[in-house]
Amino acid sequence: MVEARSTEAARVAGVRRPLGVALCAVFLLYAWLVWQAPIDRVQGIIQKILYVHPPLAYGAYLGFVLAGVGGVGYLRSGREVWDQWALSGAEVGVLFCTLMMVTGPIWAKGTWGHWWSWDPRLTLTLLLWFVYLSYLLLRGFSEGGARSARFASVYGIVGTLLIPLNYVVIDLFQGRSMHPENLGQGSLGEGMGWPFAVGNVAFFLAFVYLLLLRFEVEEARSRIPYEEPA
Amino acid sequence: MSYLLVAYAITFAGLGWYARSLQRELARLAESAAQASADPP
């Protein structure tokens, strides 16, 4: 016999469905705002990657932080649900980080003239991606259970140390980084603020939607004792 | 322009592909769970 769906999974599903509808509406607004956004005088139209690249980076950071927070929760309480959130956060974070790592070089090719530079920010981001890709491989190849969940929790917590470093590395290497500085108040051109803000909201909602969906999958898997791989 | 379109196309294709994969997996797991519940203990 298989246990009925947990209360937490039912609650998550109840939030996710209306969120999907809101997400569609926000993305329509986002598309219109990006279309209307002014074209940058220096970089030209390719600068509109701004409305997708940083929001993906924030989503990646959020997913990796969640892997650490879930790890702390699991180590403190031993409750499987924390580990499920940690794994879900890491996986969605890796997806966002992968897309960020794809859109960044496209932007670089259009502005710097080459796809990649061993710049401190880019190198650390690549390292961050490898760290969490390894986390997923570790989870995928281990047999599961409390021991691997504990190890993954510690790994996820240690991995989060790279996140603040990745963010401040540009300030640490003042003037020696090709990557533009972190966005601050007033650093966007006129008319670029709204599409950027709505872009961040849209990608944040997409992150939450995928996270909830991934959690539901993990929770459903945990209720089936054993099954042959598909 | 083409670089910009490629960046947006990859991003939305990636997000859409992932969401569809998860939805399919969730449906498959729900089916397995229903089948397992129907089986005699």
Report what the structure shows.
The complex is a heterodimer of chains A (230) and B (41). Helices cover 72% and strands 0% of the residues of chain A. Chain A has seven helices and no strands. In chain A, helix 1 (7-36) runs antiparallel to helix 7 (193-223), helix 2 runs parallel beside helix 7 (193-223) and helix 3 runs parallel beside helix 5. With 41 residues, chain B is mainly alpha-helical. The mean pLDDT of chain B is 89. Chain B has one helix spanning 2-38. Chain B contains one helix and no strands. Chains A and B meet through helix 3 and helix 7 of A and helix 1 of B.
Helix % of chain B is over 70%
- What is the H/E string of chain A? HHHHHHH
Number of helices of chain B: 1
What's the overall average pLDDT of chain B, rounded?
89
Number of helices of chain A: 7
Estimated structural class of chain A: mainly alpha
Give the SSE string of chain B: H
Radius of gyration of chain B: 18 Å
Largest sheet of chain B: none
- Biggest β-sheet strands, sense, barrel of chain A: none
* Radius of gyration of chain A, taken over Cα atoms and rounded to an integer in Å: 19 Å
Distance between the termini of chain A: 20 Å
- Which residues of chain B sit in consecutive blocks of at least 5 with pLDDT less than 50? none
Number of E strands of chain A: 0
- Strand residues, percent of chain B: under 5%
* Termini Cα gap of chain B: 61 Å
**Large-scale geometry of chain B:** rod-shaped
